[in-house]
Amino acid sequence: MQGIKLILLHDVFCPIYTVSSGLTARVVRAEAKRGERVLDLGTGSGLQAIIAALNGARVIATDINPQALRCARINALINGVGDRVTFKLGDLFDPVEGKSFNLIVFTPPYLWGLPRNIRERGWFYGEGGLLLKFLSEAKEYLRPGGRILLTYSTIADESLLKHGLRLYGWHSTIMASRNTPLERIYVLKLIRR
To answer: Any idea what the CATH number is for the domain that residue 61 is in?
Structure first.
């Protein structure tokens, strides 16, 4: 995908067959700058972290799935950026308490439903609290002038997203979008109001 070599381990989200991963990767390639500090939340296979690191950023990649972190670490090594990416296990901002970033990349799970296992936590958002928690806490982890790339879909609860953006004072701009037969996927750039 975009010249990146990836291996995938069991129970790790596969970015190769999803429109959202490729669309996000394109925007990350344009947005991540040399010398910046980047946080890739829910890194999965490590694709977005690798792209940011190839651009010269220093990256922290997190995930709740230990197998995903193992996979992402391997992928960073085979793409020559293992020394520019740090991997941390944990949920949302817990692994990076006290740190700040120029860019945060996040594709929250946006399908309605309760996940049955750790792999499904990458797709199903349960009650929707994760997105609102992210939007409420993210400002604490952004450096001045920092921004967020958030990937979302029209098959998700867009009213929840709009409510969270208003409630927590985010200004959003659509950076890229793509229609599929089932949905429109888009990448938002969020900045503080």
So the answer is: 3.40.50.150
